[in-house]
Design goal:
The complex is a heterodimer of chains A (662) and B (304). Chain A is α+β, with helices and mostly antiparallel strands and 662 residues long. Chain A contains 24 helices and 21 strands. Chain B has two domains: 199 residues, P-loop containing nucleotide triphosphate hydrolases (Rossmann fold); 88 residues, Magnesium chelatase subunit I, C-Terminal domain (Helicase, Ruva Protein, domain 3), CATH 1.10.8. Chain B is globular. Classes of the chains: A alpha+beta (662), B alpha/beta (304).
Chain lengths: 662, 304
């Protein structure tokens, strides 16, 4: 039997084009991660290879290839100024893959290209770990495997068969993947320690406030965190998620106090009902953990600042979960002299008109509470506008904002309000964080997005302690009650409030819009993915193992062995010969015994190999058994294919098979 | 008779150098009473092979060059008015020979092709209402250029089916080519060829071939092959019953040439590519190489 010679490395054009398509498919998601120049370079290489499939003369020579290599490396360096790190490293891989396509000459090169492509697929997880990418990678892996199948099978398989085989291989690998995922010991922290890339800063609140620091988040759909509540939800107007608190201002910027030498935390007096919830915090490269005003019970590994902000020991670089209890009713204690001084700090002398305004409030009442209400009334009655695009103010930002432009986002209102309170002699500070959140009726959790970033004020009143005052609510009460309608805002860059948000906030779920519904379902799937898959860290693994009754390595081994046996049995059942070759024929039975004996010695008869061809091959590999093999085969052939079988032949065949020693 | 057959192979191999497998298949085809199609580029010795076989077998030989203006009458003959007898007199065409070389059959129009193909199937021609038998043995060797060449009318599948085998010669290896370049002129060589097998001997062998034993086990294998061709999804349409018969006859002839008395799976495998290569069209690739086309069949159908 002759096999077609497999001399050319890619059996035909179809296979080569399949390879190019797969490689391109694998690399495509990097368009989102890497500089466009790198992706363009790679696409150019792939297109070049595609064209030279039809005109081999187009393939670059050694010199040109060398120049291409240099230019690829230069491109990476120009983009990232280095060759290591997440972006630069991945780019280098992509460039290498493109270049390898250019010098794909023999079978080994094709294997190298495929393995490089597998690696490029892996680098994408350094950028994103979403479900979409996971599904995409599965498809990419299946494609690459189909390339390997085509490479090994030669031109005898149809593309459809190739794809089917690859898909079934991937499907068979999935259970093993799941078992390994669950049982392979997890490593604390990320698998690869990557140098921090300044270019890859996450969106989120920043540690200074200046005009624009919150509003730049207002268009971001990125989730900041998600909260699963045990029990009832707080009202929308109570959903203030506390972030960093600012005391000090230079008139334009507000900055955080230094970490050292802080006062100890004064525990507030809590009353009323509590909310208990679990926060799934997205990585934001800061230490802050956002909690509802004010948190009382929180995990031990968190610290609390005197401003009641929760802090993690290190920056949050990956998704984390915390279970927290908060009380919306609280009363904080006395103010220390140092705090009072900080709470009244002003960078310069207030302007005359500001002093006049505050003096007017002070004359009507001396009660700080009344002054606060007067100030809120001022914001409500004067023509203030809540907008994402406030005019840029060069100097005296507070004064100009209050008396001239009167257009601003929440950070303008919060800072201006605190400034006015301090002028009036009431200790005040700016609090940033998130306000609101969208109820997801599918996954039953509250999703808070970056667009919900907010800034508000706290004033110190002698009978209540620190009290939250939100001047934005006075100007634009809808902001607090409904949240921002991102879709409309994207379109016209003006602040719109979503009616859907209110419906959801009341948990009266009545969506007519399938788009919103699809988005909600997707968010809840994503949340489940985050909670179940991405947060599967050593602690969660341990908890899961304990639920299965695995407390030590012996239990683990028992489980693994049981699972392996189960898999083995299932695969065995699946692979068992559907139709056993019927051996009612005694000659056939004897011959099968002969084949079994030979197979034990590494001589396996191929499916399509005739008995005579097999005998010739076996005899040439085992010259010492040549005579026996020849005799057995001759007898068998005579009985099975001959004109009339001699009844003595079958006995002789059986004897010779029994006597065979190989 | 066995000696005569061996001498036939030996002598043919001295004329057509380096192609023992093709010569063996061509003679196998002849012994199985089938017609042979040789597909190859011009100049690799298709005509020489046909001429050699005719001379070695002592058969009356005629060559028909197929061109685009060839008419059926040019093949089967026509009636000519005889002035002396005042009657029409049938002038037999070149088809009335024992061995016909139909050169470049795909250069002519389907009309002329069909005249030849009818004769091949029926071993008789009907001209002006009168049926005339063709001489026995009757053997057609047709050559055709690769279908992609310009000015060809590819034979439809139904007519390809009439040929028992399709083989291609291919270029000789360098040693054979050197021997060819150094050796005697082929046309001179052809004229000197002795007759190795008399016509009555040939007919006797053809009868013996028919009586080669075929066991049920072998028929199982043969049917498994045919079923694979129809059901595996590798091919656009499966093998016809005629193809199955052709495969069986060719395998019998091959067994005879091998000098055995009963057909083995290996004999079927040996003739599978030339017999089925032109009858199957793979679904995926446009492969035309017969070995490649039947490879899945050979590999995946259990041969015991």
């Amino acid at each position: 039997m002759k096999k077609p010679a497999a001399t050319s490395f890619v059996p035909d054009r179809t296979q080569e084009n399949l390879l190019l398509f797969s490689v391109f498919f694998v690399a495509a998601p990097h368009l989102l991660n890497l500089g466009w120049a790198i992706v363009l370079y790679f696409s150019l290489m792939a297109a070049w290879r595609f064209a030279s499939g039809y005109r081999p003369a187009l393939l670059p020579g050694r010199l040109l290839l060398f120049l291409l290599t240099l230019s690829g490396a230069a491109l990476v360096y120009v983009d990232y100024h280095r060759f290591y790190g997440r972006e630069a490293g991945s780019s280098l891989f992509l460039v290498g893959l493109g270049l390898k396509l250019m010098e794909m000459r023999n079978r080994r090169d094709v294997y190298l290209v495929v393995y490089l492509a597998f690696f490029v697929a892996l680098t994408q997880y350094l950028f994103s770990q979403s479900i979409a990418l996971a599904v995409y990678t599965l498809a990419a892996v299946a494609l690459l495997i189909s390339v390997l199948i085509g490479l090994n099978a030669g031109p005898v398989l149809s593309l459809k068969t190739q794809f089917r085989m690859a898909a079934s291989l991937v499907a068979q690998a999935m259970p093993i993947m799941v078992v390994l995922f669950i049982f392979f010991p997890r490593i604390a922290g990320p698998l690869w320690k990557l140098p921090d890339d300044p270019s890859s800063a996450k969106t989120g609140l920043s540690d200074i406030i200046e005009p624009g620091s919150v509003s730049r988040l207002a268009l971001s759909r990125e989730p900041a965190f998600r909260a699963d509540f045990e029990g009832p939800l707080p009202l929308p107007a109570e959903r203030y998620w506390r972030g960093p608190v600012f005391w000090h201002t230079d008139g334009r910027r507000w900055t955080l106090p230094p970490e050292q030498g802080r006062n100890t935390v004064q525990a507030p007096a809590f009353s009323g009902p509590a909310y208990r919830y679990t926060i799934t915090l997205e990585p934001h490269q800061k230490r802050w953990v956002f909690a509802l005003d004010l948190p009382k019970v929180f995990p031990e590994n968190l610290a609390q600042t005197p401003e009641y902000l929760l802090l993690t020991p290190q920056n949050v670089g990956e998704r984390r979960q915390y279970t927290i209890s908060s009380y919306p009713n609280y009363r904080t204690g006395e103010l220390s002299p140092a705090e009072r001084e900080q709470g009244l700090q002003l960078p310069d002398r207030p302007s005359a008109r500001m002093l006049r305004l505050v003096e007017r409030w002070r004359q009507s009442s001396s009660d700080p509470k009344d002054i606060v209400n007067k100030a809120l009334l001022h914001f409500r009655e004067e023509p203030f506008v809540y907008t994402l695009n406030p005019p840029v103010i060069r100097d005296k930002p507070v004064d100009t904002f209050l008396f001239e432009t009167r257009k601003g986002f929440c950070e303008h209102y919060a800072t201006a309000f605190v400034y006015l309170m301090r002028v009036a002699g009431i200790p005040a500070r700016v609090v940033t964080g998130y306000q609101g959140g969208q109820w997801n009726p599918v996954g039953k959790f509250l999703e808070v997005r970056q667009a919900d970033a907010h800034a508000w004020a706290e004033v110190w009143l002698s009978e209540q302690g620190w009290t939250r005052v939100d001047p934005t609510a006075a100007v634009a009460p809808h902001r607090i009650e409904q949240g921002i309608d991102l879709d409309r805002q994207m379109a016209d860059h003006e602040v719109s409030f979503s009616p859907v948000g209110r419906a959801l906030a009341d948990a009266a779920f009545d969506l007519h819009d399938w788009y919103d519904q699809a988005r909600l379902i997707w968010a809840s799937v994503d949340h489940a993915w985050n909670q179940r898959v991405l947060s599967y860290n050593p602690e969660n693994q341990k908890r899961f193992w304990e639920a299965l009754g695995i407390v030590d390595w012996r239990g683990l081994i028992t489980w693994l062995t049981a699972l392996l046996i189960l898999c083995g049995v299932l695969v065995g059942l699946w692979l068992r010969p559907r139709r056993k070759p019927k051996a009612a024929d005694p000659a056939m039975a004897a011959y099968n015994r002969f084949l079994k004996k030979m197979a034990k010695n590494g001589l396996v008869k191929q499916t399509g190999e005739g008995p005579r061809d097999f005998a010739l091959r076996a005899a040439s590999e085992r010259p010492e058994a040549k005579e026996a093999i020849g005799a057995i085969t001759t007898l068998f052939l005579r009985i099975r294919y001959g004109r009339q079988a001699d009844p003595r032949d079958i006995d002789q065949l059986r004897r010779r098979v029994r006597a065979l020693r190989v | 008779m066995r000696n005569a057959l061996n001498r036939l192979f030996h002598t043919a191999n001295t004329v057509i150098l380096g192609k023992p497998r093709q010569i063996r298949l061509a003679i196998c085809c002849l012994l199985a009473r089938g017609h042979l199609l040789i597909e190859d580029v011009p100049g690799v010795g298709k005509t020489t092979l046909a001429h050699t076989l005719a001379n070695l077998l002592g058969l009356k030989y005629q060559r028909i060059q197929f061109t685009s203006d060839l008419l059926p009458a040019d093949i089967v003959g026509s009636s000519i008015f005889d002035g002396n007898n005042h009657a029409f007199h049938f002038q037999p065409g070149p088809i009335f020979h024992q061995m016909i070389l139909a050169d470049e059959i795909n250069r002519s129009t389907p009309k002329a092709q069909s005249a030849l193909l009818e004769a091949m199937e029926e071993h008789q021609v009907t001209v002006e209402g009168e049926t005339r038998s063709l001489p026995e043995p009757f053997f057609v060797i047709a050559t055709q250029n690769p279908v992609c060449q310009i000015g060809t009318f590819p034979l439809p599948e139904s007519q390809l089916d009439r040929f028992l085998m399709r083989i291609s010669l291919g270029y000789p290896d360098s040693r054979s080519e050197r021997a060819l370049l150094k050796g005697e002129d082929r046309s001179v060589l052809l004229e000197k060829l002795p007759v190795c097998l008399q016509t009555d001997e040939l007919v006797a062998i053809q009868d013996q071939v028919r009586s080669i034993h075929v066991s049920d086990a072998l028929l199982d294998y043969l049917q498994a092959l045919i079923r694979f061709g129809r059901e595996s999804g590798h091919y656009e349409c499966g093998l016809s019953p005629r193809a199955g018969l052709a495969l069986l006859n060719a395998a019998r002839a091959w067994t005879f040439i091998e000098g055995r008395e009963a057909v083995l799976p290996e004999d079927v495998q040996a003739v599978l590519a030339p017999v089925c290569g032109h009858r199957l069209r793979p679904v995926s690739s446009g492969a035309t190489n017969a070995d490649v086309i039947v490879a899945p069949m050979l590999e995946q159908v259990a041969a015991v």
